[in-house]
């Protein structure tokens, strides 16, 4: 007859629950996994399968009663760590959407928007287009698998243990969020320069030939030039995105090191 003690039961439950909470936090915010098109049951099931797969490779877990307040605090801590790691990669895709906002504003397409179920708000059509392109590139370079491998590595850098996180780690997340504007502007800069030059030329034309209706002529020309430039620039952004993805993985590791106090 097989007998199981309460200590063994706690050890088995803790060996599954703590990594499960960290993985589930990543699933809530990370790109691709947090898409609303994926059902919540599928996300939870996938997180549970990953936790079961990696649990035997992890070190010993804290010996805590699963129903205690200490265990609840540890569970919340692991969820926060997973959410922070997912936000690092979410900023990468938010940067691409910001570039689309900049480009759409210069092209005169800022009024054209779609409802984005991922953010729950209206998103410019160019932001939606660039986000889909970046998502396809992310899948093509196996970015989702690399992101999960980085997550699994965080269990070695920041093992599951009772204690507080180093507050200096949150500074990494704040510093990384500055890429939202900097890299977004760099990605949109080629189109912004050309479109600003065209708008400047139309401004000079409006002063020299005031009988010409610049607004009626300028909008279709700006839109046409912007579309032509998009067909040239979009196929060339893959190196920029792959490099940005790599920097995102490094930021995830840097965040983990700082949270651990290393």
Written account of the structure:
This protein has 262 residues and is mainly alpha-helical. It has one domain. Helices cover 73% and strands 3% of the residues. It is built from 9 helices and 2 strands, in the order H-H-H-E-E-H-H-H-H-H-H. Strands 1-2 form a two-stranded antiparallel ribbon. It is elongated and about 95 Å long. The relative contact order is 0.13. The model has no long low-confidence stretch (mean pLDDT 81).
- Strand-pairing-aware structural class: mainly alpha
User: Ranges with pLDDT <50 over ≥5 residues?
Assistant: none
Q: How many individual helices?
A: 9
Strands, total number: 2
Determine the N-to-C terminus distance: 47 Å
Major beta sheet summary: 2 strands, antiparallel
The SSE order reads HHHEEHHHHHH
